[in-house]
């Protein structure tokens, strides 16, 4: 199946269109809210919440017997929120650290959820099949109504985000200052955390509890590498998330036996990897290039400074010196000398070198700058 | 109780002990989430090992999976070192990626392998007794019992051999380094033990619930004691208790054993979290309330000392001027009266001699405010408790 054919299929085939749209919206909203999670150093909160949502789904099913995903997700939301606030309680009231609290809630809630799930499976109620999909997610079970639900929640998230943009931003970067300005920090904090929980719960059906945290983190971590501005980061994260969803769906649809969730996560991870390496300011590749360039510059300056010391003792700055005397000097290589010649700082005549006017001036300034810096 | 039931409980107990030991150190070193990451990311290791050996209990598979666990730790540390993202984000990025690779590998080969994600993640303890280890024709017990027993023996051996080093490097890495123990070696040693334990336990309780067995007993124990040895012992006890009680709950409900063990751990933690004598939530809230009253009392006494005017010392004035509610001013007044700090005369409050002395002392402390002084003052300030 080639690309154009696939794109045509996306617009005509009901299932494929629903799934693509659903994963794209999901990626966008999780990317958006994930930016806040990453910047607030709550990256693993997503992992804990998504696991903590499992017992909620099971209990909602036990109570109502419904397979309606909205009711199950409401249960997930409630139990996710309970998990979140218990984590906060543990960190605040005891001396257990946040990592312990996260791991604790994650594993305990998940274990309890598993107990309930296996309990449900042994019930005679034939309706039970389908809860398993929340473990690893099944994008194929997305219905148009689910996508509408996602779109509505995304809309609400977006409007709240825009409405409280200033508050979120200031709380993110300077919580104490926010408090002194008279904002209700606790309220803002709870608001943003609740929306993160909401985004996670939305994705459970598609990606599953185990991989949901990556949906939250990966687009945001990738976006962080390209910009230092919050609005730009949120926008980029939403775009990366949406594209991970679309590409992931496309790849899993074109192959047999590939579940959508893991593929989306892998695509998002590729985004992260590319961003880590190729981002112009923070990326590893350009960092390494800058590092090498700086080292070369330093060597050049060292050679120039050394030459200056020699030349200084002579009245005529263009007095020629033997190249030999540079040999013992550490920063000196043939190529650095060539570079100096190319910069027109030095002229070479046979075995001798001499400073030009320009070179002397540059070397003098270099020297002065060093002194100034030392002061 | 049949022999199969006994064997299941024995395996569960051994897993609980084997997890509690490294778990205690992970909790103390603030690396609890690493165990979660390892438990997820060993999946590709298990899958590759399974393709090679076709046996879920082969030692090679355990080795490969443990290597993947260490690879996770190395990757997380590398990403963290680049400074591009924080440590927690690094953890959150690495393990889902590795886990996804594992899931996809299973999915692509689902037709010809007998391995599914549920089994790896959730385990099935109930089937453990059926996979027997046969040595030269003799049945010596379930395979997983031997595997987890070996891992436990190694863990305990390492614990006794390196207890001192572990203790020092956990609480003061700088001191450990200056004494000549390599914190890096101990760090990776602990990581290796954790990932081997995780792998060894995964087919008994499942990879995710290993995390519960590692963190929950240790965290519960940490709420009860501050001493390392005692914490280890408590953690092991909690692990074993919930393993056995969890088994019987699962038996009664006819549900997943791993799930019910975790639930028992959760109940245990909740109970300790609420009722622990010093660090439990109720104790903390009670202490906070007492401290609030003590501070109020101090404020009140200082106020009395500052004002000689009768109007300022009238009981009603407390409600108006210091802005206290009626109930609160009454409890503060009662406390002060009970401790002979004040005299009430016709609703006019005045300090007694004892109150004078105490207040001067308090002012002296507040003005000089040296940290060293607070130790002596504590006895005076907390005089009125009970």
How many domains make up the coordinates of chain B? 2
Shape of chain A: elongated
The number of helices of chain A is: 16
Supply the CATH superfamily name of the largest domain in chain A. Answer: ABC transporter involved in vitamin B12 uptake, BtuC
Oligomerization state of this entry? heterodimer
CATH topology of the largest domain in chain A: ABC transporter involved in vitamin B12 uptake, BtuC
Beta content of chain B comes to: under 5%
The average pLDDT of chain A is: 83
* Helix proportion of chain A: over 70%
Could you list some keywords that capture this structure?
heterodimer, A: 375 residues, mainly alpha, ABC transporter involved in vitamin B12 uptake, BtuC, Arc Repressor Mutant, subunit A, three-stranded antiparallel sheet, B: 386 residues, two-stranded antiparallel sheet, 17 helices, elongated
How would you describe the overall organization of this protein?
The complex is a heterodimer of chains A (375) and B (386). Chain A is mostly helical and 375 residues long. Chain A has two domains: 3-282, ABC transporter involved in vitamin B12 uptake, BtuC, CATH 1.10.3470.10; 286-374, Arc Repressor Mutant, subunit A. Chain A is built from 16 helices and three strands. Chain A has helices at residues 3-12, 14-39, 45-64, 69-93, 98-121, 133-136, 144-163, 165-173, 175-180, 185-207, 212-224, 230-254, 260-278, 284-312, 334-342, 357-374; strands spanning 321-322, 346-349, 352-355. Chain A has a three-stranded antiparallel β-sheet. In chain A, a hairpin with a 2-residue loop joins strand 2 (346-349) and strand 3 (352-355). In chain A, helix 11 (212-224) packs parallel to helix 13 (260-278) and helix 14 crosses helix 15 (334-342). The longest helix of chain A has 29 residues, at 284-312. The model of chain A has no long low-confidence stretch (mean pLDDT 83). Chain B has helices spanning 3-28, 32-53, 59-82, 87-108, 117-122, 143-161, 163-171, 173-178, 183-205, 207-224, 228-253, 257-275, 281-306, 315-321, 326-338, 353-368, 374-381; strands spanning 132-135, 138-142, 342-345, 348-351. Chain B is elongated, with a radius of gyration of 29 Å. In chain B, helix 1 (3-28) packs across helix 10 (207-224) and helix 11 crosses helix 12. In chain B, the strands form two sheets. In chain B, strands 1-2 form a two-stranded antiparallel ribbon. Chain B is mostly helical and 386 residues long. Chain B has two domains: 3-278, ABC transporter involved in vitamin B12 uptake, BtuC; 282-384, Arc Repressor Mutant, subunit A. The chains are: A mainly alpha (375), B mainly alpha (386). At the A-B interface, helix 3, helix 4, helix 5, helix 11 and helix 13 of A face helix 2, helix 4, helix 5, helix 10 and helix 12 of B.
């Amino acid at each position: 199946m080639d690309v154009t054919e696939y794109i045509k299929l996306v617009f005509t085939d009901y299932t494929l269109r629903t799934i693509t749209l659903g994963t794209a919206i999901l990626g966008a909203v999780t990317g958006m809210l994930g930016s806040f999670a990453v910047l607030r150093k709550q990256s693993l909160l997503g992992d804990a919440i998504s696991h903590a949502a499992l017992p909620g789904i099971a209990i909602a099913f036990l109570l109502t017997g419904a397979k309606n995903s909205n009711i199950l997700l409401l249960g997930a939301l409630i139990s996710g929120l309970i998990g979140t606030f218990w984590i906060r309680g543990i960190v605040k009231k005891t001396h257990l650290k946040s990592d312990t609290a996260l791991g604790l809630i994650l594993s305990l809630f998940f274990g309890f959820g598993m107990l309930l799930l296996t309990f449900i499976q042994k019930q005679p109620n034939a309706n039970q099949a389908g809860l398993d999909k929340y473990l690893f997610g099944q994008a194929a079970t997305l219905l148009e109504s689910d996508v509408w639900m996602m779109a509505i929640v995304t809309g609400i998230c977006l409007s709240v985000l825009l409405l409280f943009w200033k508050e979120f931003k200031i709380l993110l970067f300077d919580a104490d200052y926010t408090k002194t300005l008279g904002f209700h920090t606790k309220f803002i904090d709870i608001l943003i955390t609740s929306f993160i929980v909401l985004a996670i719960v939305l994705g459970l059906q598609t990606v599953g509890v185990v991989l949901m945290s990556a949906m939250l983190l990966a687009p945001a971590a990738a976006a962080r590498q390209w910009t230092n501005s919050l609005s730009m980061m949120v926008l980029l994260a939403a775009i990366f998330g949406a594209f991970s969803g679309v590409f992931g769906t496309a790849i899993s649809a074109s192959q047999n036996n590939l579940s959508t969730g893991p593929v989306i996560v892998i695509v998002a991870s590729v985004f992260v990897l590319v961003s880590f390496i190729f981002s112009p300011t923070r990326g590893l590749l350009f960092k390494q290039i800058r590092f090498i360039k700086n080292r070369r510059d330093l060597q050049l300056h060292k050679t120039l400074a050394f030459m200056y010391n020699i030349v200084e003792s002579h009245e005529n700055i263009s007095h020629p010196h033997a190249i030999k005397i540079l040999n013992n000097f550490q920063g000196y290589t043939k190529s650095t000398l060539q570079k100096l010649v190319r910069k027109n700082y030095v002229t070479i005549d046979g075995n001798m070198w001499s400073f030009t006017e320009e070179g002397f001036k540059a070397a003098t300034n270099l020297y002065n700058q060093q002194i100034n810096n030392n002061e | 109780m049949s022999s199969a039931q006994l064997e299941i409980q024995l395996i569960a107990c051994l897993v609980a002990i084997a997890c509690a030991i490294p778990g205690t150190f992970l909790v103390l070193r603030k690396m609890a989430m690493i165990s979660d990451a390892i438990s997820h990311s060993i999946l590709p290791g298990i899958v590759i090992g399974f393709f090679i050996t076709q046996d879920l209990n082969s030692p090679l598979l355990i080795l490969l999976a443990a290597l993947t666990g260490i690879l996770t730790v190395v990757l997380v540390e590398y990403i963290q070192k680049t400074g591009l993202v924080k440590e927690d984000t690094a953890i959150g990025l690495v393990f889902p990626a590795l886990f996804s690779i594992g899931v996809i590998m299973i999915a692509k080969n689902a037709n010809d392998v007998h391995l599914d994600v549920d089994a790896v993640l959730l385990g099935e303890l109930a089937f453990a007794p059926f996979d027997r280890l046969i040595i030269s024709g003799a049945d010596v017990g379930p395979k997983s019992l031997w595997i987890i027993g070996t891992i436990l023996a190694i863990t305990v051996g390492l614990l006794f051999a390196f207890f001192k080093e572990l203790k020092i490097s956990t609480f003061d890495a700088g001191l450990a380094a200056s004494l000549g123990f390599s914190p890096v070696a101990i760090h990776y040693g602990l990581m290796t033990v954790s990932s081997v334990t995780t792998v060894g336990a995964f087919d008994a309780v499942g990879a995710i619930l290993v995390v519960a067995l590692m963190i929950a007993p240790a965290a519960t124990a940490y709420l009860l004691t501050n001493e390392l040895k005692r914490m280890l012992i408590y953690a092991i006890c909690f692990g074993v208790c919930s393993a056995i009680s969890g088994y019987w709950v699962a038996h009664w409900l006819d549900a997943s054993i791993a799930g019910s063990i975790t639930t028992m751990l959760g109940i245990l933690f909740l109970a300790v979290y609420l009722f622990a004598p010093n660090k439990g939530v109720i104790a903390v809230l009670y202490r906070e309330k007492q401290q609030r009253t003590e501070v109020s009392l101090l404020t009140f006494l200082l106020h009395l000392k500052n004002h000689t005017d009768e109007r300022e010392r009238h009981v009603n004035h407390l409600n108006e001027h210091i802005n206290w509610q009626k109930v609160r001013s009454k409890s503060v007044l009662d406390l002060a009266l009970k401790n002979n700090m004040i005299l009430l005369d016709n609703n006019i409050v005045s300090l007694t001699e004892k109150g004078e002395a105490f207040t001067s002392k308090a002012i002296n402390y507040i003005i000089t405010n040296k940290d060293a002084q607070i130790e002596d003052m504590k006895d005076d300030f907390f005089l009125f408790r009970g």
